[in-house]
Each structure stands twice: as structure tokens, then as C-alpha cells.
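Q: What does the assembled structure look like for these inputs?
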Amino acid sequence: MFEFRLKNAADQVETHLTHVMASMGQLPVVDAMRYASAGGKRLRAFLVLESARLHDVPPDQAIWPATAIEAIHAYSLVHDDLPCMDDDALRRGLPTVHVKWDECTAVLAGDALHTLGFECVSHPDCHQDPAVRADLTLTLARAAGAQGMVLGQALDIAAETAGAPLTLSEITRLQAGKTGALFTWSATVGAVMARADTDPLQRYAKSLGLAFQIADDILDIEGDTQKVGKALGKDADAGKATFVSLLGLQGAKTRARALIDDACDALTPYGEHADALREAARFVISRDS
Amino acid sequence: MFEFRLKNAADQVETHLTHVMASMGQLPVVDAMRYASAGGKRLRAFLVLESARLHDVPPDQAIWPATAIEAIHAYSLVHDDLPCMDDDALRRGLPTVHVKWDECTAVLAGDALHTLGFECVSHPDCHQDPAVRADLTLTLARAAGAQGMVLGQALDIAAETAGAPLTLSEITRLQAGKTGALFTWSATVGAVMARADTDPLQRYAKSLGLAFQIADDILDIEGDTQKVGKALGKDADAGKATFVSLLGLQGAKTRARALIDDACDALTPYGEHADALREAARFVISRDS
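A:
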């Protein structure tokens, strides 16, 4: 069920991204926006659509925040890949935007995708109640900004220049910003749109996000570059603290499994309706890419 | 009156930016955000506050979109100054962010200021009616994105790599995106917040934005680097088409004056209440920085 719905989420977002960018013409920046926002697992969009389904939010409304979060995620990857940031030449098995075009186009395409995310959540078709649209915008801004995703990035960079490697609690805080904030936003969207309690999904997403990052650190060691589609082993080579360096490979795997159990427990109020989200949690730590 | 109110707008925005960034801690990225968003003429914030005043919107609400537009403007300058973009070392007479810190910090600080703009317009204190907040977000996203400001930037870059210099109509379209879209958003905010007709202020801002850009091109030729606080003569040296290269220096001045007359005419419905906006229009073409 999960795989089918993940694929379905990916198809829907692909179509909707094409739709919202249809009137933007054929400038290199717009081509780069389309290129950078194509493909990927679409896990965040899946979380949005599933949490909407749990709360009977119509799919033609939920597609707007699903598209928004994928636009924001795409912008963050384009900027992260820049030579002055992680300097990555490969993403999803393809040349990164600054390699295929140039740095200037990558900066601008990232900026425009960033804005597009906010355009999608504030679009009238996203929800009939403007209070919901304003809420989605405010929470998305907080999750993406200097107290969310950018904070995580900034802590990551600060760690590189600091003398000592990060502790477990520091790296947990870093990842809560870098990955966790957008995961949490995605998973709670349905509850926000239905004006329902966000607590269970918040707990689910918090554990899921951390498990996702631990799995990423494990993939960085054990993964197959071909399947993952990006350079691996960079963190270990750079001597950076990761969950694996701090907990050991087995310790990291045990911790990830415990987090997934937590995540699944949090879904109890939704009964079997949340089975796809449970499968997603198990997928997150068993994926090979 | 205009100078007093412009100074007042600058002071208010300065205070409010400090307030909204107060809880962000002391990371280099946050320091860079504060540095990049300090100073400047604050013309966009002034436009927001004046259009709010014209429509009896309380100043403690209007300060939110005023701060938002200055955060967005600051982000655009930080990214424009990057080596891969305009490669400017000086801004407002001070080292640019990537010079004072590094490129990575500049990319991230710009990104976080970008997000902060959307956080400000969707903040509950910005307006009691969430429909207004959602509207401000949607229109800001459209003005800043790939059909507004980023479009202008992209056209500017495309022009540099194209063989032939731009025509007058091409450069007018470019500037309508690059400067005009955010000017128009700023000047119409008060009408949007009061649910009033935005047409007169839209007409005002359209002429004002274009006149502003023509004045910029004139300053690039006639200005004093010390006063302007950034490198001058770059466009002429690069053989780029500007309003001055296309219309001649006198022709550009005549055109700018005609646009300012248009802008002032558009304000007729507001009578003498709009005198500060009229003064602002005259300032835009007489400024030396």
C-alpha cells in the first residue's frame, strides 16, 4: 500500500508542479526550477497527502501544500549542493543545477522555488478558509527559516569550523532543524487543514525525522553510490560527527528501530487508517537510496 | 514631511527587525541576517507605512508588511552581490555579506531573510483578518518569484549572455520585475489591508518603480561612489543597455520626470493626504544615493 501511495504522491506532485510552473516561460532559470523539482522520493509530499487523507481533507486541496513542501525541499537541495556549501556534483543520479547550468542560475532557481512554496500554500484553491492558509504559511516559514531548516544548516556549518566534533544532543538538535522541521510540518498539514489535534502526528514526525537522518548516516557508510545517486562517505572522510560515529553502526541501527517503534505508537489514535504511515516509517530505515 | 517620515519608517523597521530576530541566537548566519537587513533608505517600508496611513490601517499592524518587504529586499541584495551574480564587494558603503563572512553564510542568510519576509506577513499580529494575511502572502510571493523579481533578475542575466543589447521595451519589462513588482506590492499594502481599491496606488507605484530604475541608471553615470556606497559605472563598462544608453542622459531625465508626473497624478483620489508619497516620487529622481 505504501509503495503505491508514495508513487501516487510522486505522480500527483509532478503533475501539479508542471501546472503551477506552466505560465513561467522558457528562461534558463525556469528550466532549472523544473529540473531541480523533478524526481526524488517525494516522502514529504506523501506525508502531506496521507495526513490529509486521515482527516478527510480533499486531495485537490492537499496537493497544494504537498507541492509547496517539495518546492521548498528542492530549493534547499539546490542551494546545499552549491560549491560554497556541500559542493556536490550529483543529485538523484544527475548533475546538480550549478553543474548543468551555472552557480548564478542555481542561486536564482533555488530562490524562485523557495518563493513558489509560499505561493502554493497561500493559493485560494489550497483551502476555503483563509485562516488555514495563513496558518500553513506561518508554520511553513517557521519550519524553513532561521529557527528550523536554515538553523540546522547553520549549525552544521558551525560544527565544521569548530574544533570538537558534535555531541549526540547537539547533532540531534541540528537534525531536528535540518530534516525534522519540514517532516513535522508535512505530517501535520492534514490536521491543520481539518482544524484537528496535531499532537499524534507531531510525535510521529519527530521520531520519523530523526530515524530518517540516522538511516542517512548509515547509508553514507553502507550505501551503494549508484542506488543513492549522490556521493557517499563524505561525512566519514571529513571526520564529521554522525549518528554512526557516535553510536556505532549497530547502535545507530538499534536507535533507528526504536524511533520507528515510537513513531508507529504515536499513530494509535488513527487505528488502521494510519497503516500507510506505519509502512512509511519502516521504509525510512530500510531504504537503499 | 517626506524626509521625516522616511526616517521614521527606517527607525520603526530597524526596531521591528531587531524584535523579530531577537530569539534567533548568535550564530554567524543570524549575525549576517542582522547586518544585511540593517540600514538602507527603507523606501519600500515607507511606501507600506504611507499606504497604510492613507487607509487608516494601524501602524502596529502595518509594521509587519513593512518589515517583510525590507527582509525580502535585503535577501535579494545579499544574493545579488554574490560572486556568481554581480560580484559586489561594497553595499551601503560596507563590505557585502560574502566578503565580511563567506559565500556560504551569504547564501544561507539570504535564504533565512527570504523566509522571514513570509513569516512577517502571515504573523497573526499583522492583521486580525486571516484573509488579508493570506492575500498579502500570495501577492508577496507573486511579486518576489519567477514572475516578478526573480524574473527580472533572470532576464538581466539572459541579456548579459545574449548577443544584442536589450531594447527599450525589453529593459522596461526587466525592470518591472526587478524593481517594480516589490514597489507595487509595497505601495498597495495599505489598500489590501483596508480592503480598498488598489488601482490608484498600483498606477503610482508602476511609474515610481520605473523612474527609480531610470534614476539608478543615471546615478551609475553621474553619481559619487562615496555617496552611493557601491561600485558605479559597471553597466556602462560592461556595455549593457540601460535607460541612459537607450534614451541618452537628457532623454532619461525627461522620461523620469514624466513618470513622476504620472505617479503624482495617480494620487489625485487621496488629495493632500498623499503629499508625502508625492514628495517621495520627487525624491526618487533627485536622490544622490
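The beta strands of chain B are 90-91, 94-95.
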